[in-house]
Design a protein that fits this description.
Helices cover 43% and strands 18% of the residues. The chain has 258 residues and is of the alpha/beta class. An eight-stranded mixed beta sheet has the order 1-2-4-3-5-6-7-8, sandwiched between helices.
Length: 258
C-alpha cells in the first residue's frame, strides 16, 4: 500500500490487530527485513512497517536528508493512518529515528525499542560516512554489499546461511543511491546523547555482542542515559541480530511489549 505524506509517496504494510507496533528498518534494506518478525507480532499487535525515505518502494528524492524531515515522514504516515499512539521498534538508523520520535512525540509513544543503534556520530566517524557515500555515487550500491554483510553478520552465520546473505545482499544492492547518501548525511549529524534523559517511555535497548558498528558500549551509553531503560546484549550476533538471533529477539520483544 502507498500514501502521500510530507511530499513523498510512502510504501507501507499493515497486518494483525491490537495495539500498534511501528517497525523501522536499517539503512540499505526495506520493510521486508521484518517479514518473519511481523508475522509473529501480528498475532498480538497491529504491525505497521514502511520503507523509509529513499528505500524500497518509497520515493527517493535527492538529499541531503535531515532528521526533522525524516521525523516528519514518520509523523505524516501515522497521521494519515489515524494512528494516535504506537510502540516503536527501530533498527540502526531506525533506532536513531526512534530517539527523535521519543523526544518530540512522547504523547504518541507507548514503548520504545532501540536495536543495534547509536545516539551520536563522533567527529572521527564522519569521514567514514563521506567515503561510503562517495563509493555509492561512484560505483553503485553493489560495491557496498560484501563489506556491509561482513559488518552485519558474524562469520559463522554468513558461512552457514548463504541464502540469507543473497537475500540481504540483494536489498543492499537495490537501495537507491540517493536514499543511501541522504540518510548517510543525516547520520553524520546525529548528536542526541545529552538529550536522552528527557525520554520517559519504557525503553528496551538490544544489541549484538559482536557488532563492530554499534558495539555494546555504544548501546550501553543509550541505556544508561534513559531512566529505567533495560539493556540486553545477545551473544553470537552482530548488527542484524533481528535475523541472526531471530528467536531470542522475538521473545525479548514480545515479552517487553506485552
Amino acid at each position: 500500500m502507498k500514501l502521500t505524506a510530507n511530499g513523498i509517496d510512502i510504501h507501507y504494510e499493515l497486518s494483525g490487530s491490537g495495539p500498534v507496533v511501528t517497525l523501522v528498518h536499517s539503512l540499505a534494506t526495506d520493510l521486508s527485513l521484518w517479514d518473519e518478525l511481523a508475522g509473529e507480532l501480528a498475532r498480538h499487535f497491529t504491525v505497521l512497517r514502511f520503507d523509509a525515505r529513499g528505500h524500497g518502494k518509497t520515493s527517493a528524492p535527492a538529499g541531503p536528508y535531515a532528521w526533522p524531515m525524516l521525523l516528519a515522514d514518520l509523523v505524516g504516515l501515522l497521521d494519515a493512518l489515524a494512528i494516535e499512539r504506537t510502540h516503536f521498534v527501530g533498527l540502526s538508523m531506525g533506532g536513531m529515528l526512534g530517539q527523535y520520535f521519543a523526544l518530540t512525540q512522547s504523547a504518541r509513544l507507548e514503548r520504545l525499542v532501540l536495536v543495534s543503534t547509536a545516539s551520536r556520530t563522533p567527529p572521527e566517524a564522519q569521514p567514514l560516512w563521506d567515503e561510503r557515500i562517495r563509493i555509492a555515487r561512484a560505483q553503485g550500491m553493489a560495491a557496498h554489499v560484501e563489506a556491509t554483510l561482513g559488518r552485519w553478520f558474524t562469520a559463522p552465520y554468513r558461512a552457514a546461511h548463504p541464502e540469507v546473505m543473497a537475500r540481504i545482499g540483494a536489498l543492499i544492492a537495490a537501495t537507491p543511491v540517493e536514499g543511501y547518501a541522504g540518510w548517510g548525511e543525516a547520520i553524520k549529524t546525529l548528536d542526541l546523547t545529552d538529550r536522552l534523559a528527557a525520554i520517559t517511555a519504557p525503553t528496551l535497548v538490544v544489541c549484538g555482542a559482536d557488532d563492530p558498528g554499534t558495539p555494546p558500549a555504544v548501546n550501553q551509553t543509550i541505556a544508561e542515559a534513559i531512566a529505567g531503560a533495560r539493556l540486553e546484549i545477545l551473544p553470537n550476533a552482530s548488527h542484524q541480530l533481528v535475523i541472526e538471533q531471530a528467536e531470542a529477539f522475538q521473545r525479548l520483544l514480545i515479552d517487553f511489549l506485552r
